[in-house]
Amino acid sequence: MAEVTIEIRKNGPYRVHGDVRLIDHDGNPVQMPERKPEKPWISLCRCGASVTKPFCDGTHSRIGFKGAEEAAQEFDASRPSP
Q1: Left (φ > 0), alpha (ψ -120 to 50) or beta: where does 64 sit?
Q2: What is the pLDDT of residues 32-61, one digit of tens each?
C-alpha cells in the first residue's frame, strides 16, 4: 500500500498526499477531485464552511478560521487574569 501523509495547514485545510479513498456515512464512495501534477494532493475542509465539503474551497481564509491551538491561545489571552 502506498504511503499517505496528512498535513495540517495552519488555519487551513487538511492536505492529503497519497492515494486514498473517501467513503460517506452510508459507505458510498465519494468522488475525488481531479489532481494536477503541480498539486498532487486533496484538501479536506477543516473550518466547516466549504460549499464543496468534504473538500476545501478556500472559505476558511474569507471567514477568518483559526485552528484549534491558535483559537485556544486567543481565548486564553482574552480572559481576565485572576
Answers
A1: left
A2: 998 999 989 999 999 999 999 999 999 999
